[in-house]
Design goal:
The chain is mostly helical. It has one domain. It contains four helices and no strands. Helix 2 packs antiparallel against helix 3.
Length: 86
């Protein structure tokens, strides 16, 4: 991925979160979209998304994420969207 494109992805993410630091789950979902649209190189994107989703799952286990992100992650995993990255 070129630096300019990577910077653009993160600028848009911070704009979408109104300047606050995104959660692991938000960043993972955002990067999943960037990876799917070809902005991220396949291997680089896969590793980053898998790491972020893993962190979000840890947060779910520790009770730090509310029901909405939990349902979203369950949807992604249940529909094998995350599994297909491997």
């Amino acid at each position: 991925m070129s630096s300019k494109k990577k910077e653009d992805v993160y600028k848009e993410l911070y704009k979408a979160t109104e300047g606050r630091k995104p959660t692991y789950q938000e960043e993972g979902i955002w990067l999943l979209g960037a990876w799917a649209s070809g902005i991220y190189k396949q291997e680089e994107g896969k590793r980053k998304i898998i790491d972020l989703v893993g962190r979000a799952l840890d947060d779910i286990d520790a009770g730090r994420l509310d029901r909405e992100p939990t349902d979203l992650l369950k949807y992604l995993i249940g529909n094998k969207i995350i599994h297909n990255l491997y």
